[in-house]
Description:
Layout: H1 2-11, H2 14-30, E1 33-38, E2 45-46, E3 50-52, E4 57-61, H3 69-81, E5 89-94, H4 98-105, E6 110-116, E7 124-125, E8 138-143, H5 153-163, E9 164-171, E10 183-184, H6 191-198, E11 205-206, H7 211-216, E12 221-225, H8 233-238, E13 247-251
Parallel strand pairs: 5-6, 5-8, 6-7, 8-9
Antiparallel strand pairs: 1-2, 3-4, 9-13, 10-11, 12-13
Amino acid sequence: MKSIISFVIRYIPRPILQTVSPLAMKILSQLNRGKEVTCPVCDHSYQKFLPYGRIARENALCPNCLALERHRLMWLFLKEKTNFFTAPLKVLHIAPEHCFIKRFEALPNLNYTTADIESPLAKVKMDVHAIPFPDNTFDVVFCNHVLEHVDDDILACTEFNRVLKSDGWGILQSPVYPLKATLEDKAITAPAERERLFGQRDHVRKFGKDYATRLRRSGIQIEENQFVKEIAAEKVRQYALAPDEILFICRKGI
């Protein structure tokens, strides 16, 4: 199973995966019923979650809603630490995830906009380097596992900062590696070489421990939030969270 999933993730284009994966997962979910782990996003339980990743991580993917460890942590953070589910908020969600879209669209308090340059799940065709909305439009911006793909991550964050309201906030997750500094070389365009250096054929950089510091160059504020450390160990196990995952919370900067 792990090798099949790794192959599919590596070679099948993301828009195709986003379209067909829910159907495949419905079959797998019926084969994995149990009570050992629970997804807080969809409230379904299983013997264990499915493996996921190019180097497949065990117990990662919820076969019902397709939430991964980071999505389950983000959901819990939104529920426990924010007013996301109750306040009237205007939200921009870039490259929206399957597990969130319908749930966020159903929230009556949200004015919810999904956007991306290629995702078939997004309703607005948009380049993050030139967001087609006025200054101070959104209360919340989500952009997860996108900045490692874009030509200019700093320009993208400048745009997030611009469209956020004065008290706006967001979550900007990306893979962060145990490197002192982000690895980037714009001269590298060959997919195989990008995979070797950056971890994936469509990645243009590999973020290091300077991720937050780097994004702050855009003017946006970044908090390295360790909310997962506040969650009881039993819940971390039950929800199959990554115990060291950092949430990168952004706020409107000057």
